[in-house]
Amino acid sequence: MARTLAGMHILITGASAGIGAALARQLASEGAILALMARRRDRLAALAQDLGPLHLVLPGDVGREEDCRAAVAAAFQAWGRLDTLVCNAGYGLHRGVGDTATADWDAIWRTNLLGTAWCIQAALPRLRAQEPRDGWRAQVMVVSSVLARRAAPLGAAYSATKAAQLSLCEALRVELAAERIAVTSVHPVGTDSEFAEAAAQHGGARWHVGRREPRQSTATVARAMVRGIRRPRAEVWPAWWARWAVALGTLLPGLADRAMATRLAEAGRGGQTAPLP
Ligand SMILES: NC(=O)c1ccc[n+]([C@@H]2O[C@H](COP(=O)([O-])OP(=O)(O)OC[C@H]3O[C@@H](n4cnc5c(N)ncnc54)[C@H](OP(=O)(O)O)[C@@H]3O)[C@@H](O)[C@H]2O)c1
User: Fold this and answer.
1) Would you say residue 277 lies in a domain?
2) Where in the sequence numbering do the catalytic residues fall?
3) How many structural domains does the chain have?
4) What is the pLDDT tens value at each position of the chain, 277 positions in all?
5) 222 CB within 6 A, ligand 1
6) Is 153 in the pocket of ligand 1 (CB under 6 A)?
7) Cα angle: 273, vertex 98, 105; to 5 degrees
8) Domain containing 175 — which CATH number?
9) What is the residue with the minimal CA distance to atom 34 of ligand 1?
10) Residue 1 lies in a domain
11) What is the C-alpha to C-alpha distance for residues 73 and 11, in angstroms, rounded to an integer?
12) Within a domain: 151
């Protein structure tokens, strides 16, 4: 059965920019009631003002467990339930394994993986206790990446966090199935957002984009996520062909290595970088 978006209560982390903001706009236009979390309060406030008076602004850093708990608690306090928790906040790091310092590993792990786990753990007891709506008690949606299934050169730390998010989802989906709580991982390919700029701000290079790499818009990713919220499923692949490409790469890792070597050669030459928004 399809879930009704109108009146659905949804918390989105990383809602101040990119995929999270695009998702918020599409869900609000369908009548969903949103809680918007990210660190930049001004951005969230401007977005909420655009979307209408019903939505909550929850400034916070997912890299701090207490902020995750506070955001989830604020949503339950306001609404008494949460239909979908979207763990989207995250950033990339464009740096070779040999140059990735312990502090870089710690920081990206904390935001991308622990920030996801902490929000889920904070919500779970309340999700388990609430009554089903349209056949589902709730949904957890995690924005991972195509790189969860095939790491990018100069992106090991980031790719590892995305693979870990996928592992978390695969385990959790089965743990929660009997309770009618859906778990959905999302696997975008390169998406035009503030991602490249944010990666540079974290001390790496700007995230490299290969010359022949296809790009997608945040609106395209958000549309696929909305479909996955309306009809919960295990995985959302906004670019359908990417799923088959990584499956082929798993069967033929040498072929995938050669494709990735082209990317590495371009990046090494200071090849094309992602356009700034
Ligand atoms: N763009 C791509 O090519 C691509 C591809 C595959 C997957 N993804 C994934 O998609 C998700 C969204 O990325 P995007 O492309 O939309 O990038 P973006 O435009 O840079 O947006 C990232 C969002 O995450 C928030 N965020 C980052 N660190 C945070 C923290 N510690 N606490 C709370 N919020 C935080 C940012 O808000 P504040 O800075 O205001 O906190 C922002 O709202 C990420 O998980 C990313 O890994 C992106």
Assistant:
1) no
2) 158
3) 1
4) 899 999 999 999 999 999 999 999 999 999 999 999 999 999 999 999 999 999 999 999 999 999 999 999 999 999 999 999 999 999 999 999 999 999 999 999 999 999 999 999 999 999 999 999 999 999 999 999 999 999 999 999 999 999 999 999 999 999 999 999 999 999 999 999 999 999 998 876 677 777 677 899 999 999 999 999 999 999 999 999 999 999 999 999 999 999 899 878 887 654 444 433 2
5) no
6) no
7) 80
8) 3.40.50.720
9) 38
10) no
11) 11
12) yes
Range of the domain at 255: 9-268
Has residue 4 been placed in a domain? Answer: no
Ligand 1 atom with the shortest distance to the CA of 20: 16
Answer for the pair 213, 190: CB distance below 8 angstroms, yes or no. yes
Task: Catalogue the E-assigned strands of the chain.
Answer: 9-13, 33-38, 56-59, 84-87, 138-143, 181-186, 191-192, 216-217, 235-236
Cβ(194) – ligand 1 distance below 6 Å: yes
The response to whether residue 188 sits with its C-beta less than 6 Å from ligand 1 reads: yes
Ligand 1, atom 8: closest residue by C-alpha:
145
Q: Residue 151: count other Cβ atoms within 10 Å of its Cβ.
A: 19
> 181 C-alpha to center of ligand 1: Å?
25
